[in-house]
Input
Amino acid sequence: MKKFFYRSLILIFLVFLIFVVYLSTIGIKTDRFNHQISAGVKEINNQLELDLNEIVIFLNLSKLQLSLKTLGGNLKNEDKVIKFESISSNIDIKKIINGQFSPSELNISTRSLEIKNLISFIRSIENNPQLFILEKYIKKGHLIADITLKFNEEGKLKENYIIKGLVRDGEIKKIRNFNLSKLNFLFNLKKDLFNFEDIQLSLNNKSILFPKLDLKKKQNGFLI
Output
């Protein structure tokens, strides 16, 4: 009887070990957490609808978290659509044990987006005169971004977001005697602090380079 008990115990341990190794290296596919991630996006704005493909779940033993990742995905608002390259998130195992599935953070990587379409999408959520003017004067350009959003214990969005990425081949419609084109730069945006690097542009067919530009929000304006 004891031998059977020990053999069963060893077998259960081996099965559990194999499962942990499999989950840590290969992962499993599921759509169980799609709703929770979509709910996290709705926390940002309830007009948004996030369509996800199957999610692959990995076990992160060092942080006691489940890492969730899916390739592709669409963010929709009415007839406006933004396409993503990948979306990933982390959920603490303790939360899952307690029946909570809210992610601690959400990481979003976009595909190459046309800036005019992106501004049009943002305007469909929150329209204001600045966005209208921006959309009117931007002629062309593409943007790629990596977005990190963090949530508190209650699943509410924190303000310490990070948006990194690049703009390439930007061009603005001619304003009076100014013709701005071939605009390329890297950006790193945080709450009240915007960093821009390797800014290259052509102004009236003259090449201009700014190694770095920082904007910090101060009450009703920005400190450059």
In short: The chain has five helices and 14 strands.
